[in-house]
Amino acid sequence: MLHQSHRAHRQTALCVGAATRSAAGCMVALSLLISIGCAPADPGSTSTNGGSKRLTLERLYSLPTLIGTAPSGFAWSPNSARFAFLWNDEGKPHRDVWVAEVGGSELSPTRWSDLQRTTSPASTDKLAETQYHDAVAQETRDRDPGARAVLWHPDGERVIVAVGSEWRTVAPGAESQKFLENARQLAFDSTGKQLAFLRDGDLWTASADGSGARRLTRLAKEATRVASFRWSPNGNQIAVFESDRSQVTVRGVPDYLTEETTLHQIRRAYPGEEPERQRLGVIDASGGAISWIDLAKPAPAMVLSYRWSPDGAHLAIDTSDLYAKDRQIFVASTSPPGAPSRMVARDADPMNETFYYWRIEWSTDSNTLYFLSDRATDFHVWAVSKTGGEARALTSGNWAVAEIFPIDAGVLAVANRGNAEERQLLRVTSPDADGAPPQIEPVSSRSGTHAPVVSPDGRWAAVAHSADDSPPELLLTEIATATEQQVTQSPVEEFTNYTWASPTYVEFESHVDGSTLHGRLTLPKDFDSSKRYPAILGSVYTDSVRNQWGGRTAHPTWGLDQYLLQEGYVLLNVDMRGSWGRGSEHRRGIRLDYGGIDIDDLESGVRFLGSLGYVDLDRVGIWGSSYGGLMTAMSLFRKPDLYAAGVAGAPATNVGHALMGQMAVMMRPEDQPAEYADSSPYLHGHGLKAPLMIIHGMRDRVVLYKDSVILTQRLIQMDKDVELVTLPNAGHGWDNEGLAQTRYAFRKLVQHFELHLKPGL
């Protein structure tokens, strides 16, 4: 078994993000706002390091990846002395288990595993001679993730790792051993003597060594299963969350890559159809019947989350209706079983547009329930007694809180206080009985986006971090002292051979109502304000103006953006109405109005670009995926003279076929038929003037490929300029499901913009 220290030369070879940067210096650089009509004073400052090598799509999306492998799967040992994570220090996707000790002056993680890589199946000589077979085999190897999840064994000396269909134990200096197979969501109880997991849709338990597995529930049947569970703190009970999708409509998704065309039957509800049914119960760890919790009558449609109080006496349950308009928080006593629950907080607002950003957590003394609510200016931390009563705001102001984690005397919060583009860590201290105001203190210091996993003792946080000039890394943060140490160095040495452009954050007014809008503006390499550049809005989506590597990380556009900048495009992202962290009124602007005020905000972005003096408004393009594809199509259809070209990836062109969650914006189609029609691009294609490319995967189960086929046919019938790029093996994440597919799709996108926007003129 390999037990390898993180190589020392990697720690000094790369300059980006290698040292803790001054928070003040970073904030000055990132808070520079460009006034309308003014270019950045020093455009050259938008690039990091001085490499001169040219970027290509082939190198950006090949292995080893230039930016390295993002650390993931953070897990703390029971005594909070060590933490494990999944990583590859060579920029490959195959992750192994690494472990770091806390408390020292320097962090040098060691690799605990050397997991076997996927090998290609044996083939006949004839197949082996074909380029196709070799490419598929290479793709299989490249996409092997290695370790998928990790948790600590209660003894604190070994970890348990998910590899393929197995869980294996890993310890330094020893070969990995098979622990369990065909199991999900492994979790030990607080005593370390019992293990629970999901198998075949039911809850199972076993001893700590994985032996003696027995089935605790018998809920699994067609489309009904245990979706999740949580141990009680004393290990005597388990909360069980059941998902029943038996009433959800079955639809067919054809697969043309099988020998004969196959129709896969999936359960996929459209807005207004029968939803999934959910319920929460408690079962004794030794077995027996489940005591289902009676929340209210009528019962809320959705269980958003649930948490045991640290003393194990109560279970808090966060719920909502299907439309995110009536959120209710309940506290249920678990002794005796079946005791009635009490509603302790409620957010009922018919105008709300939250997309379920609510959170709940218990105080460490079990007396107070913390929750996120946007009942005031935006999402903030509130506190209420476990018995109910008046809730008290612990944070307030023109900023928002995204996540909360319980610590002694309060919570660790992820928020954008002081800079809307940031996600920083704050320690929020709950007030004492004397009513003193809560204290809010910064914990993180680096500019960028922080996502913590807090240690069991509440002293430390393992933090996933990235910023505009720093690819994803792992930090160790001591919460009380607000100190950060960098654990990993992920980019490969070749990273420094290239010039990486960084954005500037801008503000401009909405041309519709004068509201302040926020943008992320990035200028080409060797920018010259005397020239006229083409520009691209995109990838358009809500929450895209963020200080993190690549801006919007749901798609791997970090490399595409850098390539487009190199080729001479100006790039702009806009946090249009509906975005998080800009205030409740800003977010609620899209109510019943997809393809309305949101694309108006994008037009305001184009007008802002025109005011700068160096953007050619005859050469502006737009692109996005999913909802971003909807906005792209609708922008071209409703604002035909504004854009010269567009690319819509997996576009949601029929809102009536969206996921159920879109009813938070659109309500039920039978109640809002005109609004659904007005928000569906496929009914507005007659306005198209500019060339439109649609990129869509045939195996997409989120936005059905059928909808793009229908839109394409309608545009053909109207003699419009449309091109459908079909990806036979792609799901909804068409640009993140295999490097060959990513390169192919991005090449198509680049060629489309090159043809119609003509960079370099």
Brief synopsis:
With 761 residues, the protein is of the alpha+beta class. It is built from 13 helices and 45 strands. Among the domains are: 135 residues, Neuraminidase (6 Propeller), CATH 2.120.10.30; 259 residues, 3-Layer(aba) Sandwich (Rossmann fold).
Strand-helix topology:
Layout: E1 4-5, H1 8-13, H2 23-30, E2 47-48, H3 57-60, E3 72-76, E4 82-87, E5 96-101, E6 110-111, H4 125-128, H5 131-142, E7 147-152, E8 159-163, E9 166-170, E10 177-181, E11 184-188, E12 194-199, E13 202-207, E14 214-215, E15 224-231, E16 237-244, E17 250-255, E18 262-267, E19 277-284, E20 291-292, E21 302-308, E22 314-320, E23 326-333, E24 341-348, E25 360-362, E26 368-373, E27 380-385, E28 392-393, E29 401-407, E30 410-415, E31 424-429, E32 439-442, E33 449-454, E34 460-467, E35 470-478, E36 483-486, E37 500-501, E38 504-509, E39 516-522, E40 533-537, H6 557-566, E41 570-574, H7 584-587, H8 597-612, E42 615-625, H9 627-638, E43 645-649, H10 663-666, H11 673-678, E44 692-697, H12 705-717, E45 722-727, H13 739-757
Parallel strand pairs: 40-41, 40-42, 42-43, 43-44, 44-45
Antiparallel strand pairs: 1-6, 2-37, 3-4, 4-5, 5-6, 7-8, 8-9, 9-10, 11-12, 12-13, 13-14, 15-16, 16-19, 17-18, 19-20, 21-22, 22-23, 23-24, 25-26, 26-27, 27-28, 29-30, 30-31, 31-32, 33-34, 34-35, 35-36, 38-39, 39-41
